[in-house]
Design goal:
The chain is mainly α. The chain is built from ten helices and three strands.
Length: 360
């Protein structure tokens, strides 16, 4: 999969946010200071505030480990007499309750430590993000000293617990990424859909080309190469007249190549097109571009360009005739189907014999 361009999408979102901020500032300048509409527009909150979680984790550790520290000598005080004097029902009962308090304190303390460490990692993740709304997970793993697998699971838990209020885990190329904005995630999904369609088109194209021989595929590739060069030249040339002619040339060449891909065996009809017409046309177009680069054009230069433009018109007409020839078999098949359908409808009494579908 092609790598998802998060930088471009993030820049688009940042620019949009800045533009909205400028509009809001302009609007505020037209509103009186006492108006209720002077409240600032704040960007959406992306992260959970963790001050309370940090304080809570410290309290849990202090209370939990403190309870364990108190219960440890108490248990020893209960256990030692039982060792020397023998066990008693009261001593065993007291020891059980003391152990439960010790275990509960340790559990609470370790849970507080775990929460505190998670809050610390969360803050490190945010620092690594800086002002971006995405980051590759291997970078976060390197920053925290954890494995990528651990970081992925850790981030997913944080997303589930609403540390990242708009958090998503995605994939870009060979690596997973953290996305912290719904807008960026929406662009990410759109990019995936675009890539999916492009892959499907490429697979369909490969399937169509598989029916062609290697020689026929070579002709198709050569035609597509000329098509790309003509398009690039058209994008660079400023004149509207030549641009319209080249756009027409692009369209007819593309139609011819598409028709050949659908009809294996017809590629041989393009040999003269590829061996002479397209190379000659491209040579003329190169000459046109060289003249266009001249800062001062002589009368002969202008006349030469006009001759090239007229020649491209001639080429377009010839290529359109070639396209008609390629389509002729299809047209015959269609006419045959229409004729058969007319005959069947007449035989079934569903239409008059003197009324043809073609004339409807």
């Amino acid at each position: 999969m092609a790598e998802f361009d998060f930088d471009r999408f993030n820049a688009q979102i940042t620019n949009a946010t800045e533009s909205i901020g400028k509009m809001v500032d302009a609007a505020r300048g037209m509103i009186s200071p006492g108006s209720s509409w002077t409240q600032k527009v704040r960007p959406p909150q992306l992260y959970k505030k963790t001050t309370g979680d940090k304080t809570g984790s410290i309290f849990q550790m202090v209370f939990g480990f403190g309870t364990a520290a108190i219960m440890t000598p108490v248990m020893l005080g209960t256990l030692l007499p039982m060792i020397f004097n023998g066990p008693s029902l009261g001593g065993i009962t007291g020891l059980i309750f003391e152990f439960l308090f010790l275990a509960g304190g340790l559990t609470l303390g370790f849970l507080g430590m775990k929460k505190g460490n998670r809050v610390q990692r969360f803050r490190e993740y945010i620092q690594a993000l800086q002002d971006k709304t995405y980051i590759e997970l291997p970078r976060l793993a390197a920053r925290t000293g954890k494995s990528t697998k651990f970081v992925k699971n850790d981030l997913q838990d944080m997303i589930d617990e609403r540390y990242f209020l708009q958090g998503h885990i995605g994939t870009a190329g060979d690596s997973d990424v953290l996305i912290t904005s719904d807008d960026t995630y929406k662009n990410y999904l759109q990019s995936l859909e675009t890539q999916r369609r492009a892959i499907a088109q490429e697979e369909a194209e490969d399937e169509r080309l598989s029916a062609l021989s290697e020689a026929e595929r070579a002709i198709i590739r050569e035609g597509e190469s000329y098509l790309r060069k003509i398009k690039e030249a058209n994008d660079l040339l400023p004149g509207q007249v030549i641009s319209a002619k080249l756009y027409r040339l692009e369209q007819v060449i593309r139609r011819i190549l598409d028709e050949v891909k659908k009809r294996p065996g017809s590629a041989n009809d393009l040999r003269k097109l590829m061996n002479y017409y397209l190379p000659t046309t491209w040579k003329l177009l190169e000459s046109y571009q060289e003249i266009e680069k001249e800062p001062f054009k002589t009368e002969q230069m202008i006349k030469t360009q006009q001759q090239i433009e007229h020649t491209i018109d001639t080429v377009n007409d010839a290529f359109e005739k070639l396209l008609d020839e390629l389509f002729r078999d299809t047209a015959w098949d269609i006419n045959s189907d229409i004729s058969v359908l007319n005959t069947m409808l007449v035989q079934e009494g569903l239409k008059d014999a003197d009324v043809s579908i073609q004339n409807k």
